[in-house]
Amino acid sequence: MAYNKEPESEPRIYGYTRTATTVLTHFMCISFTVFIAVLSRPGTSLFSWHPFFMTLAFSFFMTEAILLFSPHGSLAQKFPHKTKGRAHWILQCLCVPVQSSVWQPSFTTNT
Which of 17-21, 29-33, 48-52, 103-107 has the highest mean pLDDT? Predict the structure, then answer.
């Protein structure tokens, strides 16, 4: 029985594909947030802040918080896990005040 001590490596195309999709996800996340910011024109009315803050909170901060742990395209790839965990929770906690600031403008303009 022959025992091969070298682990089988996967084709490089799989690694490149994972990295490309993660970079594409970062790009789409930023692009969508900018698109909604341009489309909603925050500051033109009190309600115009609602779509901007919701997109910033859920499309940008949440997605980037999740992607911090991606081994193939994380912006904090070389940092230790503890630092990634702290950055993750900071981004998650940023969602709460940003998302909460939306409720006051949306209720005052629609009542």
Answer: 29-33
pLDDT, tens only, 42-60: 988 888 888 899 999 999 9
What's the domain range around 73? 45-111
Tell me if 61 is assigned to some domain.
Answer: yes
Domain count, the chain: 1
Domain assignment of residue 26, yes or no: no
Average pLDDT value for the chain? 84
Our CA dihedral for 65, 71, 75, 81, rounded to 10 degrees, sits at 70
Instruction: Please answer whether residues 68 and 22 qualify as being in contact, where contact means their C-beta atoms are separated by less than 8 angstroms.
Output: no
